[in-house]
């Protein structure tokens, strides 16, 4: 068993969402965890599977057209114009996949915060809701991801500004994380290569599996094209 580190890729919003979903559904090494960092061909915005399209459109900037796509995961609206984006799949049956959603969320963000601190950046986790309720589910999801930090998001300890969040999808194949780090919240430059190395090393420790660089999986190109096309349609984007 191992954590497969896949090559960086850049794509459109629909293509990126389709590839993340296929990493969960069709990965040839189903018992391996898998990780990828990726970029965007055009200024892009994604939003949660259950969000209403009317709300999404009302929250988008009116002065710049964005490549828009509904994610297969939940969460809020994410502006990808200045972020560091990744996907992580933990296979079915791994102890971290079997934890409750909040605990797996915390474990992944512990790794990300540690990776940021390794390059001297200030980062911690949001450990409580305001006002305190004694119920760790009381921090409801924000409609726009980086407007407000939720429980176990990565935050700046001084400004309390949200640095990173993620959304999840769980099914019979495992657990998909789609995560985003908002660079402006760091208050200092980010070394992308070091972040990738330190974050994946921390994830490997958390999974207790070695991290191994792997080539891009040989997905069926017809399936990739069909799913990308589906995610590009108004029917998918305006599903709710």
Relative helix content: 25-40%
Number of spatially distinct domains: 1
Q: Beta-strand level of the residues, as a percent range?
A: 15-25%
* CATH homologous superfamily designation: Bira Bifunctional Protein, Domain 2
**Which topology does CATH recognise?**
BirA Bifunctional Protein, domain 2
Quaternary structure classification: single chain
Helices, by number, come to 7
The succession of helices and strands, N to C, reads EEHEEHEEEHHEEEEHEHH
How far is it from the N-terminal to the C-terminal residue, by CA?
Answer: 39 Å
Stretches where pLDDT falls below 50 for ≥5 residues?
Answer: 133-137
Biggest sheet record: 9 strands, mixed
CATH A-level architecture: 2-Layer Sandwich
Rg on CA atoms, Å: 17 Å
Give an overview in words:
By secondary structure, the chain is α/β, with parallel strands linked by helices. The protein has a single domain (3-237), classed as Bira Bifunctional Protein, Domain 2 (BirA Bifunctional Protein, domain 2), CATH 3.30.930.10. It contains seven helices and twelve strands. It has helices at residues 13-25, 53-59, 95-98, 101-117, 192-207, 221-232, 234-237; strands at residues 3-5, 9-11, 33-40, 44-47, 67-70, 78-79, 83-91, 124-125, 154-155, 162-171, 174-182, 211-213. Strands 1, 2, 3, 7, 8, 9, 10, 11 and 12 form a nine-stranded mixed β-sheet that branches. A three-stranded mixed β-sheet has the order 5-4-6, with helices on one face. Helix 1 (13-25) packs across helix 6 (221-232) and helix 4 (101-117) packs across helix 5. The longest helix has 17 residues, at 101-117. The protein is globular. Residues 133-137 have low confidence and may be disordered.
């Amino acid at each position: 068993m191992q954590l497969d580190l896949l090559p960086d890729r850049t794509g459109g919003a629909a293509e990126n969402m389709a590839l993340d979903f296929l990493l969960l559904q069709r990965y040839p090494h189903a018992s391996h965890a898998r990780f990828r960092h990726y970029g965007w061909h055009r200024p892009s915005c994604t939003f949660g599977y259950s969000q209403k399209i009317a709300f999404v459109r009302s929250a988008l900037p009116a002065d710049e057209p964005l490549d828009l796509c509904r994610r297969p995961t939940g969460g809020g609206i994410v502006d990808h114009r200045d972020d560091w984006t990744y996907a992580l799949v933990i296979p079915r049956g791994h102890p971290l996949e079997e934890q409750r959603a909040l605990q797996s969320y915390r474990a992944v963000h512990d790794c990300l915060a540690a990776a940021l601190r390794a390059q001297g950046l200030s980062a911690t986790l949001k450990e409580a809701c305001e006002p305190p309720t004694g119920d760790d589910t009381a921090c409801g999801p924000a409609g726009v991801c980086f407007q407000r930090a939720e429980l176990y998001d990565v935050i700046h300890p001084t400004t309390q500004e949200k640095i990173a969040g993620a959304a999840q999808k769980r099914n019979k194949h495992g657990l998909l994380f789609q995560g985003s780090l908002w660079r402006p919240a760091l208050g200092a430059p980010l070394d992308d290569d070091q972040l990738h190395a330190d974050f994946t090393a921390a994830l490997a420790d958390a999974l207790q599996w070695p991290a191994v660089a792997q080539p891009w999986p040989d997905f069926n190109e017809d399936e990739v094209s069909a799913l990308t096309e589906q995610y590009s349609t108004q029917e998918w984007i305006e599903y709710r």
